[in-house]
Amino acid sequence: LDQQANDIARSLGTGVNNDPLAYLDPEQDLIVSNNGQYVKIMFRDSMMFPTNSSRLTRSASYKVGKVGEILRQYPQTIVETAGYTDNRGGFNYNMNLSRERAKSVANKLYAKGIQNQSYVTGCSLQNPLAPNTSSQNMALNRRVEVYLYPNNNVRTDVCR
User: Fold this and answer.
1) Spatial CA neighbour of 74 closest among 151, 153, 157
2) Can you tell me whether residue 82 is helix, strand or coil?
3) Which of 62, 97, 106, 144 is spaced 20 to 30 Å from 158 by Cα?
């Protein structure tokens, strides 16, 4: 996991950041972390998708593609993409949007040739990083996270 996290972070021009408060920094649009059981790559909404869309921006497509290139070296890794929204709009609308965004990221990974077992999860407005009380906090909650697991035994409920 350490090697995978470092390879991915390096390919994205960043480092591994295990600071639990890093997710609350609005300046961080990309965070790679390793908790010892799995690697998590968090992509912020502002650089990922146009408003109310699941179409990847050019920047997001490039960055997700870099992750896919690295994952080809780790075909045994289990990949889960999870989409999250803020609390604007209804739960069902946000569930569909979060799932479609996660699916867009997963599709881009597969377009890069990965063969990994994978899961796509929409979490809607569940598991916010910050209270949805300001536009800045809402922006923190709109994200796609890619989880890299060594096996199914360590898979977690990413929507909790």
Assistant:
1) 151
2) strand
3) 62
Eight-class DSSP state of 56 = P
Mean pLDDT value of segment 147-157: 96
Cβ atoms of residues 13 and 6 within 8 Å: no
Predicted confidence band of residue 52 (pLDDT cuts 50, 70, 90) = confident
Parallel, antiparallel, or unpaired: how do β-strands 78-84 and 118-122 relate? parallel
Each residue's pLDDT tens digit, 60-91: 999 999 999 999 999 999 999 999 999 999 99
Kindly state the DSSP code that residue 16 receives in the 8-state scheme.
B
Distance CA 44, CA 106 (A): 16
Least Cα distance to 156 among 98, 145, 49, 47 occurs for 145
Q: Is 73 exposed, middle or buried (0-12, 13-18, 19+ CB in 10 A)?
A: exposed
How far, in Å, CA of 159 to CA of 132, rounded? 16
